[in-house]
Amino acid sequence: MATTCKITKLLKGNEYLFRVRAVNKYGEGENLESEPITAMDPFTIPSPPTDVEVTSATNEAMTICWKRPASDGGCRISGYITEKREKHGIRWVRVNKKPVYDLRVKASGLQKGCEYEFRVFAENAAGLSEPSLPCPLTLAEDPKFLPSPPAKPTIVDSTRSSITLSWNKPLFDGGAAITGYKVEFRKSTEEDWAVGVYNTEKTTFTVTGLTSGAEYIFIVRSINKIGISEPSPETNPEKALQGAYLYCISQTVCICSRNRQTCLFATLLLLLLCCPQTSRWKSELATFIPAPHVKVTPICGEKVTGGCFFLKLNV
């Protein structure tokens, strides 16, 4: 004979008394009465989820993830509810109308350029938990990446102690504006790179303080707000040598006739372009192409690093 009984259709929250008495062929015994007891679930609401974070974001959507609550309240978690709020908003708005059973949800239909925060509730048979701590504000924008490096830099000029190089902008800016370029260099006989400039907005730069006659290799990196790109292809080794210079020599002379009765004053102007034999005939202002009647004569076929030179002209 059973000694337990399940009583149904009670009202949750009401207090009840129960009594039991034994019965045999001679009749009923005395009642045994229970203490007052409230009809309620044998479990509670769960604790809130933890570690809510946005794992990806675009202009119009974000993915929110979280961890399970520390306590399920004694009953299996049946789902999660997520809410969102704009940075300057007051009301929390539901992201998912029905509970989700996964530990992530995608919030769509967001406003580009707005910042959002999210919180999550856990639910079991007893009801919804308290809300989780909201995640940090996240901006609705397309993701940004590191930029691609510039193309191989070009050497445009050199002196005994400096080399000037230029480069083109990278093909891909990473989704964010290029804020500058980092120039690095090393001697061809060394492995360690030195920094010529940490951040220049221009696409040309002159590296100074070089050793005359030494060969140098250069690379350039692009910079945006995310960080610094991979290095560009290395330049060919370039020596720090004196470039071309244009000299202007002006002299006023007096030319007299034999009887000195007639005198003529004239100003002779000599333009002299000098450069090492291995250098290019150009400057930053122009490229020099000798006219057909101009004869180019190498004065010295050996490498020189300084000294005084005299030029004799036969006219």
From TrEMBL:
Biological process according to GO: sarcomere organization
Keyword Repeat found: yes
Annotated Fibronectin type-III domain residues: 1-42, 48-142, 149-243
Pfam families: fn3
UniProt cross-references to InterPro entries, sorted A to Z: FN3_dom, FN3_sf, Ig-like_fold, Striated_Muscle_Regulatory
CDD domains in the cross-refs: FN3
Domain of life: Eukaryota
Keywords of the record: Immunoglobulin domain, Repeat
A single cellular component GO annotation: M band
Protein's recorded name: Fibronectin type-III domain-containing protein
Source organism of this protein record: Monopterus albus (Swamp eel)
